[in-house]
Amino acid sequence: MNSFAFTLIVFSALMHALWNLFVKQSTHKTIFIWWMFLASLGLFTLLLPLLPGEFPHPDGTIVSLAAASAGCFVLYHLCCGRAYHGGDLSLTYPLTQTSMIYVPLWGVLVLGEHLNLPGLCGIALVISGAYTLQLRQLSPGELLRPFRRFGEPSIRAALAAGFVYSIGAIIDKTGVTRYPPVYFTYLLVLFMLLFMTLNLLRPRYRRGIAAEWRQNRRLIVLSGPVVMASFLSFRYGLSLAPVSYAVPARQVSILIGVLIGILFLGETCGRIRSFAALLIFAGVMLIRFG
Fold first, then answer.
1. Closest CA to 138 of 252, 269, 259, 271
2. Three-class DSSP category at 114
3. For the chain, how many structural domains are there in total?
4. What is the mean pLDDT of residues 103-110?
5. Quick one: pLDDT at residue 86?
6. Which tens digits make up the pLDDT trace of 257-281?
7. Mapping DSSP to helix (H, G, I), strand (E, B) and coil, where does residue 180 land?
8. What's the rounded Cα separation, in Å, for the pair 206 and 213?
9. CA-based radius of gyration for the chain
10. If we measure between CA atoms, which residue out of 76, 24, 41 comes closest to residue 231?
């Protein structure tokens, strides 16, 4: 992976960790994320006239790719929410990261990407670190615990989240290689907001929309440029690097999230989190230099 693509992906990871911090501080997560994407799309729309040239007319294939990718990412968030709501985080979170197993596989089989040995080792280390992060202890029994409870709805939802995200990543990569990344990102955010709006039309959410704005409007306004920067920088990086490397490399956001938790939220960093962070860091460095 070249230096510019790597820098874009690391910057995207920083922005991703920041908007997740905003979500963590919000009252109603689903409604806040909708407001966040609304703020991002509004800012994006205001900036479009400042871009050089005109908005290139998207054909049916590009629109379909943007809609399909957006559908995958919205479904990913819904699956994660279902998994976290009904199950132990230490069981479900590692399984949502299984997308990093599928993405290199789809990259090779579908997109014809080629992976070298250092890159493969880096991907394996990132996967190991992401999986280790939520374990309660380092033991064979704990490592296998999530896989012993496949019958639980929360476990199935977590596995579905990982699989759906991997499909979305491949569609994303296809889109940014066929269409300018900035405009594909705009279409992607537009469709994501549309799908989220359809979800918020349900009676259980309607009353909370105005309340969330009153309670967290400062965070919502701040989140707009952060989400836009995260989406744009990642898709520009994705257009320059193999998706098999880009998605695992972006997991450096986990390290940033751990640091934010320690420095700003007063969280502790035990031995397991430290070990997981080292695995991810080593993996990302192998991906970069391999």
1. 271
2. coil
3. 1
4. 92
5. 65
6. 777 777 766 666 677 777 888 888 8
7. coil
8. 12
9. 19
10. 41
AA letter at 51: L
Q: How many CB atoms lie within 10 A of CB 41?
A: 19
Q: What is the residue whose two structure tokens read 């599928």?
A: 102
Q: DSSP 3-state assignment of 59? A: coil
What per-residue confidence (pLDDT) applies to 88?
61
In the block, which residue shows the tokens 């963590």? 24
Q: Which residues of 143-158 are buried (b: 16+ CB within 10 A; e: fewer)?
A: eebbeeeeebebbbbb
What is the separation of C-alpha 78 from the centre of its chain, rounded to a whole number of angstroms? Answer: 13
Domain span including residue 178: 3-49+56-289
Distances (CA, A) of 31 to 27, 35, 285: 9, 6, 36
Q: 136 CB contacts (<8 Å, ≥6 apart)?
A: 90, 142, 272
pLDDT of 136 > 90? The answer is: no
Question: What pTM was computed for the model?
Answer: 0.87
Token reading at 73: 């990412």
* Residues 61, 193: Cα–Cα separation, whole Å: 20
Tokens of 282: 């080593």
